[in-house]
Design brief:
- The structure is a single chain.
- The chain is of the alpha/beta class and 80 residues long.
- It is 29% helix and 16% strand.
- The chain is built from two helices and three strands.
- It has a three-stranded parallel β-sheet.
- Helix 1 packs across helix 2.
- The longest helix has 12 residues.
- The model has no long low-confidence stretch (mean pLDDT 88).
Length: 80
Amino acid sequence: MTELDLVHAVDPFLCPPVGQGPAYFRLHGRPAYNYRYHYSDEDLQQLAGCLGQRQSVRVLFNKTNMADDARRLKGLLGAS
């Protein structure tokens, strides 16, 4: 991954990210591709744990209520 300057794009609820570099998480709901899914607080806590010590992580909530889930994750992480 590093040698080719690749970023692994993955839904961490389905598959763990590969490598230790930057990460790009695409979330489509649970189970997979349930676009109406509303992530629970427990889901977001689990996602926060997946972020680990990575210096660069991008998270895309690709579903109907994505803005709300993104705001809740930011609040959980203490981001502004």
